């Protein structure tokens, strides 16, 4: 298809005549059939809702087709309306547009639906099993049409994938305002999502799926590398001492598959158990795992050899993780670092496989005898924890990787809870990312080159490196390590070949670094050194964007981790400080009703407007969270916010007074 034809198709929106029915493409990874949760009246409502997008003349045909989709897939995706052109991030000038900001947004949302990037592209799901960009193809077609037609004096309003419409606004307003899954609080239970999503009135936006900010596996590799490196620092401070240390974990899936690559970058011996041979094969063929063993005796010999020669190597154990842990105990092996990244947030439907059964046997039991499956999972979890506890007694540092391992193990009755009800191990945010990164303002800043030209990405890498190196020279000791980790990351980023989809880069930076890097990009666009606009953004898994008591805000101990003021304030504050688009979501990572999170996108085009906006918005976007973390009495955040107040006279933050604990102890 020529570019002109592509532009015509975008501007057409929902076609007047019905496109031909598309066959169900079995080469594509499809979303599983969803729960049949609607009653007859609600099913009729779902179909009535779906038909709203179409001219009356099509209703007789489409009503039957949508009823069939609802029956077969549990949702109405409107497969027939999936466009014929290939969806991927195209150079910005290939889009039809009146506003270059809106064109950049089209590029970003098409990246989220690229076959090479998205998990279930035909169901408009980018990642995490249910992280949706839109609920159906009509919403997609209408949205891109609006984006192509809108000016910089209009704002597009998105309700959970549905484009409510273009409203007059002004050039400093966001071009798009997105909300995903926002519910009346009492209607935020998992089955409410199933029901209202099936009716077509809400969707699960995950974090960067419904906000058009996903950048493929690079984000996960970087986050996992930072986590594993900092976890390794908890057991040894010098790089030399880290050599030959053994890191044991589970999972080579979507996110967990980044662990061996991250472990290798951190210089460790990494052993990852994976029950599913397909997952192991994928990571091995990608080069993220060096070697694969399915025999524990051979594996133990190999690990011992690596420990003796202090070799950084990544190894997969093809089998159940509990067999691995128990063997490490009987062999009295020294394990230094341990975690688990099976999908325990989803324990009864294949997130965690019981020991003693093959993958096929487990899958059969899950379908035919779910009660028995549950018993076997819980039995395995108890064995899992017993083995981990033995190794922890011998000095292993174990942490929960945000996958509900501790929660499910405790529900299974495993020996994992202290007398006061807390868990005996900490989570990765409580112990690692929270105090070492988020409280200092360091989080997952990212950018995308709208030219889609790798040469521009190389220039941005160089500019970012220059900024970080300069900052390092005068940085206080507290943040030197974070800067250095990211200096090393960005130096190797290009040769590590991390780009899948749009020309994107991620690194962890604080507000000073984010602003200085963005300024350098804007100047380079102005001078022509960078050929096209650059889109700034971040993962929602950040300093300020997310209120999530069991993950991002799990190291907030003043009781406020169950409030969501920070995420909402962030969204609103970003909007009036110059974000090009903003989003606020219910659910993301840990589940529907468990988290409120938000993000932004900002288009830099080399203008003075961009310069003003980036300074104002990026400053707020990070410091809002540091202020909240400091009010919760987090030492690192107190350090960071006091330093920021010294640098910024207009910033006045309410600081906490600490109380002598003996006064509290003597009250009752
Ligand atoms: N990496 C991150 O940045 C991050 C951050 C927070 C939370 N998490 C959590 O990590 C978990 C994993 O995410 P994912 O996307 O990789 O999920 P996934 O389902 O794609 O991968 C998990 C893998 O574990 C394997 N597995 C399950 N039970 C096993 C067992 N007993 N023995 C051996 N292998 C077993 C599965 O076969 C699967 O391949 C999720 O709960 C996610 O929410 C990840």
Question: Topology, pairings included?
Answer:
Blueprint: H1 3-12, H2 40-51, H3 59-73, H4 100-112, E1 125-127, E2 131-132, H5 137-149, E3 154-159, E4 162-168, E5 176-180, H6 190-198, H7 218-233, H8 239-242, E6 246-250, H9 259-265, E7 269-274, H10 277-286, E8 291-293, H11 296-309, E9 313-318, H12 321-330, E10 337-338, H13 359-368, H14 370-393, E11 397-400, H15 405-411, E12 426-427, H16 428-436, E13 443-449, H17 454-474, H18 477-493, E14 504-509, H19 511-527, E15 534-538, E16 546-547, H20 565-576, E17 581-586, E18 596-604, H21 608-631, H22 635-647, H23 661-665
Parallel strand pairs: 3-5, 5-17, 6-7, 6-10, 7-9, 8-9, 10-11, 11-12
Antiparallel strand pairs: 1-2, 3-4, 13-14, 13-15, 15-18, 16-18, 17-18
This protein binds nicotinamide-adenine-dinucleotide.
Distance between the termini: 76 Å
The proportion of residues in beta strands is 5-15%
Low-confidence stretches: none
Helix-strand category: alpha/beta
Radius of gyration: 25 Å
Q: How would you state the average pLDDT, rounded?
A: 95
Major sheet: size, sense and barrel closure? 9 strands, mixed
Count of individual helical segments: 23
Give the beta-strand count. Answer: 18
Which small compounds were modeled alongside the protein? nicotinamide-adenine-dinucleotide
What spatial form do the alpha-carbon principal axes imply? Answer: globular
Helix percent band:
40-55%
How would you characterize the overall build of this protein?
The protein is built from 23 helices and 18 strands. By secondary structure, the chain is an alpha/beta fold. Strands 3, 4, 5, 13, 14, 15, 16, 17 and 18 form a nine-stranded mixed beta sheet that branches. Strands 8-9-7-6-10-11-12 form a seven-stranded parallel beta sheet. A two-stranded antiparallel ribbon has the order 1-2. It is globular. The structure holds nicotinamide-adenine-dinucleotide. Nicotinamide-adenine-dinucleotide binds at residues 220, 223-224, 250-256, 273-276, 279, 320-321, 341-345, 352-353, 401-403, 589.
